[in-house]
Amino acid sequence: MPWLERKVQVLVLVLVLVLVLVLVLVLVLVLVLVLVGSYSRDINTEKEMEIEMEKDIENVESLVPVPLSATRRHLYAVRTPERLELTYLGSSSSSSSSAGPAAGPGSGFYAWLSMENDRPWRRRRSYTAAPGPGSTQQQVSALSTVYLQQRKSDSQLRLAAHCTLLHSDPCCAFPCQNRGVCTAMRAPTYECDCTRTGYYGQNCTEPEFFTWIKVTLKPSPNTVHYLLTHFKGFWNIVNTMSVLRDAIMRYVLTSRSHLIASPPTYNSDYLYKSWEAYSNLSYYTRTLPPVAKHCPTPMGVLGKKELPDVKVLAEKLLVRRQFLPDPQGSSLMFAFFAQHFTHQFFKSDMKMGPAFTEAKGHGVDLNHIYGDGLERQHKLRLFKDGKLKYQVIDGEVYPPTVASVGAEMHYPPHVPDEQRFAVGHKAFGLVPGLIMYATIWLREHNRVCDTLQEVHPDWDDERLFQTSRLILIGETIKIVIEDYVQHLSGYNFKLKFDPELLFKDRFQYQNRIASEFNTLYHWHPLMPEAFHIEEQVYSYKQFVFNTSVVTNHGISNLVDSFTKQVAGRVAGGRNVPGALLHVAIKSIENARKMRYQSLNAYRKRFSMKPYSSFEDLTGEKEMAALLEEMYGHVDAVELYPGLLVEKPRPNAIFGETMVEMGAPYSLKGLLGNPICSPEYWKPSTFGGSVGFDIVNSASLQRLVCNNVRGPCPLASFQVPDLKETGSVIINSSTSHARAGDVNPTVMLKDRSAEL
Ligand code: HEM
Ligand SMILES: *[C@@H]1O[C@H](CO)[C@@H](O)[C@H](O)[C@H]1NC(C)=O
Ligand SMILES: *[C@@H]1O[C@H](CO)[C@@H](O)[C@H](O)[C@H]1NC(C)=O
Ligand SMILES: *[C@@H]1O[C@H](CO)[C@@H](O)[C@H](O)[C@H]1NC(C)=O
Ligand SMILES: *[C@@H]1O[C@H](CO)[C@@H](O)[C@H](O)[C@H]1NC(C)=O
């Protein structure tokens, strides 16, 4: 059979090839061994010197001469936490009084670079750094330590040379574009992994054909935003055409959530993929890995060696001079919903540090209502009819007291026992707005239990409780998408919560909260200067940790007042209330600890063009100049300060970056919930059609109306009749903060003392 013969032929050929290869390999090995052998013989005596030198360097704090043998004297070492500089001054003729560095031809060094600090003798490599003619400086790239030696055989060593060891990991410059992954190879080279980015080339900058078409046709985020927030008549028609509406909503969901890595990748301690980063739920994940500690500057290679002083930054750019209302008219009802809702998944672990979370559910699990963990949940449960414990004050239902249930809460000592409400989240005593929402949701849970019990008289406490919890999760997601995000987006397109839209797509029903998402959600500029409830005005001092505000006014009046009071604008700069400036400062400090990449790095990660200048970022000149002075380079501006000073979109609460980054995290977190998966998303999961209907008809207004006594007040995320109240002046000329006549420093001191 001829094909068999062919096979044998091929086999023989392969065998011969393998043999030849092995032979060549052996030869090369022998050669290398011989070479290395002679080489090491040559330097053997100096090995000891190197160790000695290494020891000395360990102890050198500043410029100190390291004693060397007669022929290599005057080696100076300067050691800083970031780099090690070795300076050799002298000559082989050993005239010890060398005035300074002088270069000569043919001079050089052998430098052995070790890749790891703790094991300097492994993976040693020789490196020759010969100064160019006339040059006294030669930079040697390495990752950690360098060992210097005079070239022995060189007879012309009449020079002094300066060898600086820079930790120039090429990945510090973030050379890989379009989400390519940088891996440093043998310094100074690197590799960009462009797999599935749609790009190729050394730095993943060359688009593949289809990518090119997509990029060319794709409108910018600002264009899309413009289209969606204008042409109301057009959208009103689209909103009534369910096929079109579904298609657009599906596109919104998939295009946004595709920007989120799922399963998650990095965390604040792992710059590369690892099982630990994937599996350890105590960490927030990271969308962009941290800047490596050995990089020349905090943002990689650009910008200044030191980031600006946080307090100065906060006082010059962040603190409010004069209250700037949100032109979208967000109400305090919105602001407190945001705070209440997000604190179930932004629960930083104060003991472990900002990179860690206590909310291991990483999503909408309603632990802020039911408590984190069984122990706390059981303390809050009534164990009757599925309900949560409660108390009745003036004929209305409120959360129970800490004393009566034993669930720990954070209250300052001056709060009397009867005003210490116990709810799912330990910190919700902080502001009456949070206790208001906690009360509303507690009433809703118990109400849903009653509704379920009516149709399922046979169900036990456990089943009523568990099913009600799933219903409340569904209601929350519904309200967040159709009321909350709808308001925030300002879209004339009507958003829709419908998990079925994703059933034909590949979509991962899982979520991991990113640290960057937490950081960007620090929307403290929403908070006003004082809180107007009925006829009263509360300062921060009177408002914070004052739960009696809730019982004194009652839920109905609180909803009414919070709906009428406008919140502050988040972007545009200088709108963080003095009383909360310390929180903004903390956010920046934490981001630095976690070594966040720059604002522009995040813009690229989320498919936006990086800002080309400071004025491009702020849209004005004054703050741009201050930023330039502080950061030096626009690519070095930090994420959080950048988000707060970013130019807002016209008549909008946020700038482009906040929306383009926030929306993907948000939608992924909402739709990634298990109740949105095909196996869960059906009536039986929610106790039948009654429960499913509660989910599918949920709205903020209904939530309030179902749970307040008497006539229900208007509940809205947007202040009604904005212009009539006169509290908002929508004026393009006021789109930016101006330095008012208030001295922010004085204000800061006053306000901080209040809390
Ligand atoms: C008067 C109202 C408010 C006060 C007194 C307040 C105070 C605080 C404080 C003290 C922290 C902890 C800072 C730290 O040590 O790291 C914090 C964190 C935070 N705040 Fe506020 N805040 C208020 C309103 C808001 C609002 C309206 C939002 C809107 C979303 C918000 C979002 C956040 C977020 C996301 C965190 C991070 C939570 C974490 O990592 O655990 N806050 N706030
Ligand atoms: C890739 O990036 C590096 C560093 O930014 C640059 O020096 C190099 O020229 C780039 N290569 C290509 C092919 O653009
Ligand atoms: C997660 O990582 C932290 C920090 O390394 C560690 O203390 C903790 O024990 C880890 N958790 C688990 C479950 O492994
Ligand atoms: C708390 O609020 C009540 C009214 O609701 C007010 O009378 C009281 O002064 C406030 N407490 C503090 C410490 O300001
Ligand atoms: C509104 O803008 C106009 C010019 O466009 C300006 O003259 C006026 O002072 C602005 N009003 C406020 C309250 O800033």
Automatic annotation (TrEMBL):
InterPro entries from the UniProt entry: EGF, Haem_peroxidase_animal, Haem_peroxidase_sf, Haem_peroxidase_sf_animal, Oxylipin_biosynth_metab
Keyword vocabulary terms for this entry: Dioxygenase, Disulfide bond, EGF-like domain, Endoplasmic reticulum, Fatty acid biosynthesis, Fatty acid metabolism, Glycoprotein, Heme, Iron, Lipid biosynthesis, Lipid metabolism, Membrane, Metal-binding, Microsome, Oxidoreductase, Peroxidase, Prostaglandin biosynthesis, Prostaglandin metabolism, Signal, Transmembrane, Transmembrane helix
EC number, as in UniProt: 1.14.99.1
Superkingdom of origin: Eukaryota
Transmembrane segment boundaries: 12-39
Gene Ontology CC terms, in alphabetical order: endoplasmic reticulum membrane; neuron projection
Subcellular location: Endoplasmic reticulum membrane; Microsome membrane
Binding site for heme b: H524
Residues annotated as binding substrate: R256
Active site: H343 (proton acceptor), Y521 (for cyclooxygenase activity)
Pathway, per record: Lipid metabolism; prostaglandin biosynthesis
Keyword Zinc-finger included in the entry's annotation: no
Cofactor: heme b
GO biological process, one term: cyclooxygenase pathway
Record's catalysed reaction(s): (9Z,12Z)-octadecadienoate + AH2 + O2 = (9S)-hydroxy-(10E,12Z)-octadecadienoate + A + H2O; (9Z,12Z)-octadecadienoate + AH2 + O2 = (13S)-hydroxy-(9Z,11E)-octadecadienoate + A + H2O; (9Z,12Z)-octadecadienoate + AH2 + O2 = (9R)-hydroxy-(10E,12Z)-octadecadienoate + A + H2O; (9Z,12Z)-octadecadienoate + AH2 + O2 = (13R)-hydroxy-(9Z,11E)-octadecadienoate + A + H2O
Stated family: Belongs to the prostaglandin G/H synthase family.
Subunit and partners: Homodimer.
Protein name: Prostaglandin G/H synthase 2
Lineage: Eukaryota, Metazoa, Chordata, Craniata, Vertebrata
